[in-house]
Specification:
With 513 residues, this protein is of the alpha/beta class. The chain has 2 domains: 4-287, HUPs (Rossmann fold); 337-474, Isoleucyl-tRNA Synthetase, Domain 1 (Orthogonal Bundle). Helices cover 46% and strands 15% of the residues. The strands form 4 sheets. Strands 1, 2, 3, 4, 8, 13 and 14 form a 7-stranded parallel beta sheet that branches. The chain has a 4-stranded antiparallel beta sheet with strand order 6-5-7-9. β2, α1 (19-37) and β3 form a beta-alpha-beta unit. α2 (53-62) packs across α3, α12 packs parallel to α14 (404-425) and α12 (337-367) runs antiparallel to α16. The termini are far apart. Bound molecules: 5'-O-[(L-methionyl)-sulphamoyl]adenosine. 5'-O-[(L-methionyl)-sulphamoyl]adenosine (MSP) is lined by residues 9-12, 20-21, 23-24, 49, 230-231, 233, 256-257, 259-260, 289-290, 297.
Length: 513
């Protein structure tokens, strides 16, 4: 059986994990969890991109071997995944032998097919930054910026991959495969880039400049260009060459940020695969960027958001909720601590948290902690059921179409509708009535609140897995493995013994004056 295979970009081992890395993992995790709940067999891969100049430099600075440096970085990134409750099935590191052997085999195959040739490369080189420069790196007056130090024109022999000859094929492929790039507007950007002739890709770096890489199998004096190496992770991790490779490949989604669409994922990668007679991935899911107070996050601006601070204070699910609620997948979004607090307090604390505590509290007070029968079916019960049936019809297509922010908006509108229903029914007033019809209304109203809560918690499972499980367990329900009929309004809670009231989203502590 073909797995639903989804990947994230592999993070550069050079930096520290930040909000952008966290978002990509959460987004991918939400899609993976959603697919599992739909009953699909999912394989979710993430990992670390370890080779290259910057990692070599950072390791040197830290006075350790590159591999040791990467081991420490891998632990930092993997621990972020654990804290965010990311359900990845595998974690690939490009320094692993299972990866390196595939990179070498593919290079050899391309070389044998005559797709790789050696030639001279002439260009401006910054010794300080240890990189070739392009005209776009120049200052307006044509000089080179300070950070590059002394720049000289050098000529170097290198290996080139003939990607130019696949240009026409690629343009046609993108034009005829609407699902290849999501959202579709990003495809225009790629086609725009492909209007200019594609230069063959330099896929080697001389060892004397860069040691920390995968040696070319056909020339030990060179290592592999880091993008060629990194992209291969998507197939090396699922055993390219092994018997069950086809149960994974082609990948259903590569989830990536907009900065690495052109040229690596939309140009190099499909061409590499085409040249190797391997199918391209089905879709690139391209997300936008998180900005911090309107600006790109950067060390020098000092506005990098550390996701782990928020997670340790508010919990992973609140953080996951915020990211999915605020970002329209594909667009950019601005992160602000005020907005985070506003969502936490109003949506999570006042709407969802309040519903949980008042539902449980009143059920304990008026019904001995049990859910009774839904015996009354009049207004406002019918309206609440209708409200759910509208949401229920939309939720799965919205998830399927990556419209998580709208799905959450609808689920939380339903949560507010339950709270409003509680206000209208006012169980605390019904409890004072001696009329037997009011007793039935009282029991029904609490059963309705619990059932509404069960449905909302089930619908939230891909985004807030821990909170969802917690609420379901308070309602004496097992954790959700598949949606099945869990999103249908039912009386399955009738007779359930409820858990004790709990505060799921405690008010944030005020900073001490
Ligand atoms: N190592 C390459 C990817 C190789 S994939 C074969 C890389 N690494 S990265 O660490 O710089 O970025 C990893 C992912 O995080 C990328 O998809 C990138 O777009 C994403 N983000 C980095 N900063 C981001 C934000 N501020 N906002 C959202 N995502 C961004 O690129």
């Amino acid at each position: 059986m073909k797995n639903f295979y989804i990947t994230t970009a592999i993070d550069y081992a050079n930096g520290s994990p930040h909000l952008g890395h966290a978002y990509e993992k959460v987004l991918t995790d939400v899609v993976a969890r959603f697919r599992r709940l739909k009953g699909e067999s999912v394989h979710f891969l993430t990992g670390l991109d370890e080779h290259g100049q910057k990692v070599q430099q950072s390791a040197r600075k830290a006075g350790v071997e590159p591999l040791k440096f990467c081991d420490e970085q891998a632990e930092k990134f993997a621990s972020m995944c654990r804290l965010l409750n990311i359900s990845n099935d595998d974690y690939i590191r490009t320094s692993q032998e299972r990866h390196k052997k595939v990179v070498r085999a593919l290079l050899q195959k391309l070389f044998d097919k005559g797709e790789i040739y050696k030639s001279e490369y002439k260009g401006f080189y910054s010794a300080r930054q240890e990189q070739f420069l392009q005209d776009k790196d120049r200052n307006e007056d044509g000089s080179w910026p300070e950070i590059f130090g002394e720049v000289s024109e050098i000529t170097e022999s290198n290996y080139f991959f003939k990607i130019g000859k696949y240009q026409e094929w690629l343009v046609d492929y993108i034009k005829t495969h609407d699902n290849f790039i999501f959202p579709r507007f990003r495809a225009k950007q790629v086609l725009e880039f492909l209007k200019e002739p594609l230069n063959d890709l330099c896929i080697s770096r001389p060892k004397e400049r860069l040691e920390w890489g995968i040696p070319l199998p056909f020339d030990e004096n060179y290592v592999t260009y880091v993008w060629f190496d990194a992209l291969v992770n998507y197939i090396s991790a699922v055993g390219f060459g092994a018997a069950d490779f086809e149960s994974y490949w082609p990948a259903d989604f590569h989830v990536i940020g907009k900065d690495i669409l052109v040229p690596p994922h939309a140009v190099y990668w499909p061409i590499m695969l085409k040249a190797l007679d391997i199918e391209p991935p089905k879709s690139l899911l391209v997300h936008g960027w998180w900005l911090s107070s309107g600006e790109k996050m950067s060390k020098s601006l000092g506005n990098i958001v550390n996701p782990l601070d928020l997670v340790s204070q508010f919990g992973a699910d609140a953080f996951r909720y915020f990211l999915m609620r605020e970002m329209n997948v594909g667009q950019d979004s601005d992160f602000s601590a005020d907005q985070f607090l506003a969502r936490y307090t109003s949506d999570l604390g006042n709407d969802l948290g309040n519903l949980v505590s008042r539902g449980l509290n009143m059920s304990h007070r008026y019904c001995g902690g049990f859910v009774k029968a839904q015996s009354v079916n009049e207004e406002p019960e019918t309206s609440l059921k209708d409200a759910w049936s509208a949401v229920r019809g939309e939720i799965l297509p919205l998830y399927e179409g990556m419209q998580f922010h709208i799905a959450l908006d609808k689920i939380f509108a339903f949560i507010r509708a339950i709270n409003k229903y509680a206000e209208t029914r006012a169980p605390w007033k019904l409890a004072k009535s001696a009329d037997p019809a009011d007793k039935a209304r009282l029991e029904t109203s609490l059963a309705f609140m619990c059932e509404g809560l069960r449905l909302a918690a089930s619908a939230l499972a891909p985004i807030m897995p821990t909170i969802s499980e917690k609420i379901l367990s308070l309602l004496a329900q097992p954790k959700l493995d598949t949606f099945g009929d869990a999103l249908n309004w039912s009386d399955r809670l009738c007779g359930a013994k409820l858990g004790a009231q709990e505060i799921l989203f405690p008010r944030p502590q005020q900073p001490k004056a």
